[in-house]
Design the sequence.
């Protein structure tokens, strides 16, 4: 298998952390997003959506999108499940993972891609161009503030996103907070619960993936 990656981007990092937690090693191929390699004819054949990560299987099949890749790896390497150990946990992990991506990861993307000069006409990932909307950047920053506050309240009574069970939802939240730093948003001083959780995740060996 091959993982098409870009070391600096947040979404591929979610997959790399997941792989590290599973102790899965996969050959990686770096796609230079800053120089537009994702739009090349060769890469479009691999992923018409023109983004990373993409997992290419030995038979040539390609899987794009973070959750799809991680679900595939979960199926082929079931040890140390990260999507839940029973039906209730799996449902809760899915729910939290969706909320985190919507309110954390996408909020940071909204702020970053609508305010960064280098992303003029590239406000959304993918093969099509979209103009930046400054108001969406402002809204993204506000959403990040709310995300931090909501997460802090959650961790007042939970060790991880799903009680005492480390899951893919924690990976998504950790990377979302890392991504927020790109728009100069860091965990507020009054969010001690969130900071405790963040420090705990940062200490995991997989956080360096």
Sequence:
């Amino acid at each position: 298998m091959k993982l098409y990656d870009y070391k600096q981007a947040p979404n591929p990092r979610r997959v790399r952390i997941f792989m590290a937690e599973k102790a899965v090693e996969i050959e990686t191929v770096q796609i230079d997003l800053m120089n537009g390699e994702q739009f090349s004819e060769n890469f479009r054949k691999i992923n018409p959506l023109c983004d990373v990560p993409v997992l290419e299987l030995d038979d040539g099949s390609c899987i794009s999108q973070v959750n799809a890749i991680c679900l595939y790896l979960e199926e082929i390497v079931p040890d140390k499940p990260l999507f839940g150990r029973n039906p209730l946990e799996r449902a809760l992990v899915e729910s939290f993972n969706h909320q985190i991506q919507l309110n954390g990861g996408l909020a940071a993307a909204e702020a970053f891609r609508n305010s960064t000069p280098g992303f003029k006409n590239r406000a959304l990932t993918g093969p099509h161009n979209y103009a930046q909307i400054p108001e969406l950047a402002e809204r993204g920053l506000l959403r990040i503030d709310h995300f931090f506050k909501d997460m802090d309240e959650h961790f007042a009574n939970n060790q991880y996103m799903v009680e005492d069970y480390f899951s893919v939802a924690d990976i998504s939240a950790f990377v979302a907070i890392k991504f927020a730093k790109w728009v100069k948003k860091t965990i507020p001083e009054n969010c001690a619960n969130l900071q405790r959780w963040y420090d705990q995740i940062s200490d995991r060996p997989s956080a360096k993936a």
